[in-house]
Amino acid sequence: MPLLSIENLSVEYRTSAGRSVVISDFSLAIEQGESFGLVGESGCGKSTLLMAIMGYLGRNGAVTRGRILFEGRDLVGLSDAELRQVRGSRIAVVYQEPSAALNPSLTIGRQLMEVPLLRAGTTVADARAQVVRMLGDVHLPHPDSVMRRYPHQVSGGQKQRVVLAMALLANPALLLLDEPTTGLDVTVAATVLDLVNELRQKYRTALVYVSHNLGVIAQVCDQIGVMYAGEMVESAPAASLFASPRHPYTRGLIASLPALGADKHSAPLIPIPGSVPSPMAARRGCAFAPRCVDARAGQCDIGAIAIRPAAPDHLVRCVRFAELAPPVASDAFVADAQQDGEVVLEADQLSRVFKVGRLRLVANDALNFEARRGRVLAIVGESGSGKSTFARILAGLDAATSGSLRFRGADVATQPVRRRNAAQVAAIQMVFQNPDGTLNPSHRVGRPLARALRRFGVARGRRAIDARVRALLEMVRLHPAVQHSLPRQLSGGQKQRIAIARAFAGNPELLIADEPVSSLDVSVQAAVVNLLLGIQASHGTTMLFISHDLVLVRYLADEVVVMYLGRVMECGPVQALFSPPYHPYTEALLSAVPLLDPSAGRARIRLEGEIPSPLNPPPGCRFAGRCPRKVGAVCDTVPPPAREAGDGHLIFCHISLDELRRVPPVFGDAAAAVVGAPTTASSRTDTH
After folding, report:
1. H-helix or E-strand spanning residue 500
2. Among 301, 457, 561, 614, which residue's beta carbon has the most beta carbons within 10 A?
3. Is a pLDDT exceeding 80 seen at residue 183?
C-alpha cells in the first residue's frame, strides 16, 4: 500500500459568485521515502492540494469527491482532533516564507522544544537534547547558540533550516514543501535542497515538493507531476519527463526556460500564450486547449479528457500527444549580434559607506567596471553583495561616499534624483522586482504612464498623451483598454509589463532591471524577457540586469560583474565566466544552478557559513572565509590582485591564472570525474 494515495480528488470553494472548482479528478500515489514534485503555473491548484492533504481548506472549501488515503486511512471526513493527531506526528509542512512559521517574540530553542514536549513522557532535558541534535542534522553551526537567538537574529537561509528542523522533529512519514527556496539566494537554496535530499535518505521521509521552478524539481524529485487548472496533465519519473515530455503544457514550460549555454542570439525563449483559466470558468474538453497551438476542434474540446499511459510509468492527459510537433518560436525574440558600443557608464573606485552608530557599513567598496551602449551588463551575487545599493546610486535614490560614476560624461555618484533635471531622470529608469510596489492600488494603471509622459515632456496635451499611452501599451503587448484597469485586476505579468512601459515612457538611455522576472511564472518570465530584449534592441538602450539566476544571465547578458560583500570578484564577457578560469566564488555560484536535465554531470560546491558582516569586512579577500580553494593566510590579510585572463576578463584572486585554468569545469563529463576534498569552509561533491 502506498504511503499516500489520492484517488479522483475534487476540491471546490463556495464564493459569493458561485462554485469554484480548484482541483478536479486528481490522483497520485507516493511510496515511503519517495520524493514527488508538483509543478505548474500560479493558479493551477498546487498549494490547494497541500491544504487538502492537511485539512486546511477553510470553511468555504470542501473535498466534493475522491479520497486522500494516508497510511491506509482516509483523511477526508476526519474530525479536527483526529486531523491534529496526524498533523502533529505523521505529516508536516514547510511553507515558502519561514518567518511566518516562527514567533518573533520567542527564542528559536523554545519554539522547537514545543514539538517534542507535546509527546507524553518527554522531559525538558530530552526535548532540548533532541532539538540540539536536529539543529546539527540541518547543518546549523553552534546549535546551542542558535537556540538562544530570536528569529530576527538569523539569516533567511538559517530560518529555513530552523523550519525544516521543526518539521522533522515530529519524525513525520510525509513532508510537504511549498516553494521553500523561492526567496533564497541560489547558493543558500542549493544548500537547502542538498539538505532536503540528505534528510530524506536519513529519515526515510516521503516528500511532496511544490514549485514553479522546474530546475529545482529536477534536482530534488524522483517522480514529477505537472498540474494545470486543477488537473494532473502529465506524470513520469524525472529523467523520463525531461527527456521526453508528452503534454503540450509540459513542453511549453520547458521551452519557456533558457537552457544552460544558450543565448539570446541563437535560442529564443518560447512563451506560452494566454493564462491559466479561472476556476469558475466553464470547461469543455481539455483545459489547456485555449492556449494550445496543437488543439483541434472536435477532438480536444469534446467530453472529459482521461489521463492515460504514454509509456511505462508515464501518464499524459492529451488525445494528440503521439502526433505533436516541436514548439514553434512564434512569439520569440532573437537578438542580433551587437558590436561594442561606446562606453556610457563608468564606475571608478565607487564606494558607499553607511554609518551605523560609531561603526561603518561598507555596501560598495571601490567598484570599477563599465557598460556600453546597447548592451546588457548583468550584476550577480548573493544578497548583501551590494548589487541593489549600486543600482540605487545610479538611479539617484542614494549617493556614493567616494569615487565617481560617470553617465553621459556627467558624474552622478553624489547627485540624488531630486537634483537631476527631467532629461537626466528620464535617461535612467528602473524596473523593480515587485511591480505592486510601484503601482498605486487606487489608481488606474494608465495614470502613471500619462504622468511620466507629462513629467518628461515626451507628449503634451490630452490627445497626444492618450495616443502615446496606447502606443506604450501596445509596445508591451497589452490591449489599450488595460489602461482603465486597477492593479488588482491584472496578473503579475501584466503588472510587470505596465512597469516596463512606465520605464520606457521617457525613452531612457539606460534601464536598470532589478530582478524583474524572479517572482513570475516561467511562461510569463519568457514573455517578459523577450519583451525587454526586443524593446532594448529597438531603442538601443543599455540595460543593467541584476539577478541571481545565472542561467538567465548566461542567456541575455553581454558582460557580467560578479560581486561579493561590496567588491567585484570577477568581471568580463558572459561566455568567459561560464568556463575556467573563474573565481572560486563564481565557480560556487555556477555549481548551485538548478539544471533541467537531472542526468547532467555537475560538480557541487556547498558553501558553508554566512557572508561576513559588512560592519567588519575581512581586510584581505572578502570571500576567504568561505572559499574552498583558499591558499593560505595571504587570503585573509592581503587584498587579491587582478588577474587578466584576456578579452577584458578580470579575476580578483590570489590563485594564479595557470592554476585557475586547471580547475575542472562545473558542468559536463569532466566535472563528473572530479572529487574535491572537503575543507573547513565548504565542500565540493559531484553528482549526476
Report:
1. helix 492-503
2. 561
3. no
Q: Look at the alpha carbons of 613, 619, 622, 625 in this order and tell me if their dihedral is positive or negative.
A: negative
CB of 502 closer than 8 Å to CB of 452: yes
Name which of 584, 585, 562 is nearest 572 in CA terms: 562
Separation of alpha carbons 110 and 79, rounded Å:
29
On the question of pLDDT at 674 being above 80, the answer is no
Give me the pLDDT at residue 554, please: 92
Phi, psi of 90 (to 5 degrees): -115, -25
Domains 1-90+170-332 and 343-560 share a fold: yes
Strand, coil or helix: 50: helix
- Which residue is listed with cell 500527444? 321
Helix, strand and coil percent figures for the chain, each rounded to 5: 35, 25, 40
Contact 37, 211 (CB under 8 A): yes
Homologous superfamily, domain 343-560: P-loop containing nucleotide triphosphate hydrolases (3.40.50.300)
Confidence of residue 515 (pLDDT cuts 50, 70, 90): confident
Give one DSSP letter per residue of 454-518, joined into a string. HHTTS--SHHHHHHHHHHHHHHTT--GGGGGS-GGGS-HHHHHHHHHHHHGGG--SEEEEESTTT
Place of cell 518539521: 167
Instruction: Dump pLDDT digits (tens) for 516-531.
Output: 887 788 888 888 888 8
Instruction: Report the distance separating Cα 165 and Cα 131, nearest Å.
Output: 8
Calpha distance 618→410 (Å, rounded): 33
Residue 152 has which C-alpha cell?
530576527
Give the C-alpha separation, 98 to 154, whole Å: 11
In 269-320, DSSP assigns E strands to 308-311, 314-316
Mapping DSSP to helix (H, G, I), strand (E, B) and coil, where does residue 508 land? Answer: coil
Put simply, whether the predicted model's pTM sits higher than 0.85 gets the answer yes
Closest C-alpha to 214, from 200, 229, 224: 224
Cα→Cα distances 304→49, 285, 286, Å: 21, 5, 7
Helix (H) and strand (E) counts in the chain: 21, 26
Alpha carbon distance 293, 273 (integer Å): 9
Which of 186-195, 288-297, 503-512 bottoms out in mean pLDDT, i.e. has the lowest? 186-195
Instruction: Give the Cα separation of 365 and 369 in Å (integer).
Output: 12
DSSP conformational letter for 306: P
Domain boundaries, given as residue ranges, for the chain: 1-90+170-332, 102-168, 343-560, 580-687
The mean-pLDDT minimum among 356-365, 399-408, 636-645 falls in: 356-365
Q: What is the pLDDT of residue 679?
A: 36
409: Cβ–Cβ under 8 A, 6 or more apart, which residues? none
* % residues pLDDT > 70 (the chain): 94
What average pLDDT does this structure show over 357-362?
87
Element at 431 (helix H, strand E):
strand 428-431
C-alpha cell at 667: 558542468
Q: Measured between alpha carbons, how far is 279 from 636 in angstroms, rounded to an integer?
A: 58
DSSP 387-398: HHHHHHHHHTSS
Amino acid 630 reads: K
Q: How many angstroms separate the CA atoms of 657 and 676, rounded?
A: 19
Q: Are 174 and 90 in contact (CB under 8 A)?
A: yes
**pLDDT at position 680 over 50:** no
What confidence tens digit (pLDDT) does each residue in 85-111 have? 888 789 999 887 888 889 999 999 999
CATH code of domain 1-90+170-332: 3.40.50.300
Locate 439 and state its grid cell. Answer: 503601482
Type of residue found at 207: L
- Tell me the three cell numbers of residue 88: 502533529
- pLDDT, residue 672, reads 41
Bigger pLDDT: 381 or 383?
A: 381
